[in-house]
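Sample pair:
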Amino acid sequence: MSKKKDTIITLYVNTKEIMNHSGKKISRKDFSPIIKLCDNHYDHPSGENFTSNIHPNTKIAWVGAAMHIMENEEDFVIIKKIKTQKGKSILKIYDSKLSSGNTHIDGHVGKSKCDTEESYSIRFLVNHNGKEKKFTIDPKIRII
């Protein structure tokens, strides 16, 4: 893990393959070949884990990216919504009107104990060859 405190989580999507997926919610067993999640703390893209290690009291941003952009230069992935667990969450998601626009979602992680882990949902839009479809995955964050 790097010494950087703030976190950028990047959702890489195989835009061609995901369009063949029948449902909107993608289970963990289906992640690996079509979705990779990584961050700027040297958590390398992984399809198995989908857990990001985050420092307490830091900013966080989620961005989407087409996995094979050179093959499909007009494809894109946009993070539409981050949904936290019901009740008290360690994630605070900023209102999109107060954020940096609609290309990514911003938020922060409050003061939390080490090894606290929480699931959340990422809703994202994929555009492949001019066709659009929305999907949802449920990764986790872990406070380190």
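The domain at 7-143 is CATH 2.60.40.3910 (Immunoglobulin-like).
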